[in-house]
Amino acid sequence: MLQPPTSWNGAYDPDDQLASAGLEASLVRFENVGLRYGPGPEVLRDLTFAIEPHSFQFLTGPSGAGKSSLLRLLFLSLRPSRGLISMFGHDIATLSKDSRAILRRRIGIVFQDFRLLDHMSTYENVALPLRILGRAEASYRQEVIELLYWVGLGERMGALPPVLSGGEKQRAAIARAVIARPQLLLADEPTGNVDPSLAQRLLRLFIELNRSGTSVVIATHDIALMDQYDARRLVLHEGRVHVYD
Amino acid sequence: MSTTDDMMERSDRPDRPLGDTLISPADAAHGGAPRAGSAIVPRNSIAGRALVVVVAIMTFLASLTTGAVVLVLASASEWQSDVAREMTIQVRPVTGRDLEADVRQAAEIARTTPGIASVRPYTAEESARLLEPWLGSSLALDALPVPRIIVLRVDSGRRPDLAGLRAALAARIAGATVDDHRGWIARMRAMANTAIAGGVGILALVLLATVLSVTFATRGAMAMNRPIVEVLHFIGARDNLIASEFQRHFLRLGLIGGTLGGVAAMIVLASAGVSRDVFLGTAAEEQASALFSTLSIGVVGYAAVVGQIILVAAVTALTSRRVVSKTLAGIE
Fold first, then answer.
1. B236 contacts in A (CB within 8 Å)?
2. Residue-range domains of chain A with CATH
3. pLDDT digits (tens, 9 = 90+) for B115-152
4. How many residue pairs bridge chain A and chain B with CB atoms within 8 Å of each other?
5. CB spacing of B332 vs A104 below 8 angstroms
């Protein structure tokens, strides 16, 4: 069985004074959450669900159903118009901007458009979350290299993103999202731009990450992908969420 | 749906890392060695280089303006003090009196007056030369009642006893009057103040234009960096850390551009002083000397140019910080 790298022990975050408060059972809890942009109608309505530790779920629904908006709520890039969002035991409405930034370090996010920094090598892109923690390069070098080999980019760690293929970029983005060992991994259409074979490999990568303790949420409308793995589904329809355990 | 193990079984569980099969030897040649140490904000972007050029040009222009204003300020005060340091006694010829004896006596009275540092009576020939521009050199001036001039240089440390001098001359020499150049000084002061106000006004406008153009150029360069701000934000970097990274980067760009422009301006200003020595004795040098007592901006001038380099670099850094803060506020 494939195992995550042995030296990949995650990141000690010296700023994270919020750790002791996060003892609640659920990683994420939404209660009657609504979201509207400006004065417009609510795009998300009465969302009530939880994401448990070590869980794996697909977030799906038709285009325009609000998947991206829900993901943005999940990685604290949006504030809800109403309702309560609790993350790692903290009501996010009561957190300062700095505290939200620190909480965001417990969340890994894989963007559909990768968002790799073109002037940095693959190695540097993946190491970025550890670098912003103020860690010396020597302290994380080995774990970044092992993770890169694990995702199949061992020979491409010196390459700049513009010369990487779509699949390589996707794996680099995933490696960057998980290098700091987040408790929650969010992936937005991670198989949207890759062929079915690579999509299956990426799914296997997410499953292994989940088995190593990370809760995973994959936003996708790829039915074939979801059929490959028996997991919980959060289905968004007309702004409401329906949970199929 | 299938279970995890079913799925892993079906997908040919690999015995080597994921994706290994996706790497071609050609790909591997592209960069196996990890590269570390890149700045978070790219150092050599096109926008960054363009910003350095804008900052250099604006600092150069602002520094030249500063140099010119410093020269005008120094010369204006020099014009005033030159005029204020001199007085003249005019001895008019009076029928029945010996003009030469009157001039000698007036000079003697001036020498004994407190606050007068030196006395220089003009000879008849020197007085005639003063009239040459108006009367020509061929005219015999002996027949004309040409007054004689005595130039007095005022002691810079003491106020001259002007009233005592006037009283002594009036009592002993008929036709002798003292001109303390008060009217000239008033006009000089008005002209100098106008030059100073104009210079300071132009300098203020140039500095404002510099600050505005550097601000807009920085904003332009920052727009290219928005994706970096977003990525840093989403991976959990604190706002202060992101702002500091950009501030440090743009401070560096501002200092490079400012130093290039400022040093170029210093070289131009210094070469103006040197060129005066090269043209010493020529008509051009004399005209320049008449207008500007010095062509060197001195320590104060160079300090002002250095101050401008620092100001421009600070504006660049603070603008980048403000743009980052605004960007971060927009993405929650």
1. 101-105, 107, 129, 132, 180
2. 23-244 (3.40.50.300)
3. 888 999 998 888 878 887 787 777 677 777 888 899 99
4. 161
5. no
